[in-house]
Amino acid sequence: MSIITTQEEHYKYSQEICETIELSALLRGTGIAKRTPEYIKKKMESKDAVIALDNGKFAGFCYIESWQHGKFVAHSGLIVHPDYRNLGLAKKIKSFVFDYSLDKYPEAKVFGITTGLAVMKINSDLGYKPVPFSELTNDPSFWKGCQTCTNYEILKSKENKMCLCTGMLYDPKEKQKDPSKHPFNVRIWNRLKKIKQAIFLED
């Protein structure tokens, strides 16, 4: 198994990556911003993507997006092929792309929005903190990317200030000296997620 920055030889995986991301979202019943093979290929071309391969077989993927002239970066499209799940690969990919983005965009704050508890756990372990959407990028093009998500109307009705997703932020200027005093607790986050769903999805 290898995790590497994408090269031209990896363009052929673009379609499979998109299909795997979309199928995963459907199975989880969660909203997701849809990607196209052309967009994934563009990320590969700009060296803003990493891929996990097992002897040439697609195993996982993630890409970087930058906003406000590199002031913010986000990791998107994190996916692991069904054949390689429950092996800790998602965390390895996330850690790899996290370190890579800090090298490529050393001044940027790293952020993400997600409904996935597994991704929240990984982010928390890397030093991300939950924050209100107001601390994330205000670039309209980022929020425009949410238009294909099934929960977009909720986000729109709240003027991009909140949604079912949780915002998380890593600021490299804040020294990560000590372990978090409030480690990630799946039960607590799952309860908060259900409360959000009850509030936003009620008839």
Automatic annotation (TrEMBL):
Q: Which InterPro entries match?
A: Acyl_CoA_acyltransferase, GNAT_dom
Q: Does the keyword Transferase apply?
A: yes
What is a GO molecular function of this protein?
Answer: acyltransferase activity, transferring groups other than amino-acyl groups
Q: Where is the N-acetyltransferase domain?
A: 9-149
- Give the transmembrane ranges: none
Please name the Pfam families in this protein's record.
Acetyltransf_1 (PF00583)
Q: Where is the signal peptide?
A: none
Gene3D superfamilies to which the protein is assigned, alphabetical: 3.40.630.30
Keywords of the record = Transferase
Name the record gives this protein: Acetyltransferase
Q: What is the lineage of its organism?
A: Bacteria, Pseudomonadati, Bacteroidota, Flavobacteriia, Flavobacteriales
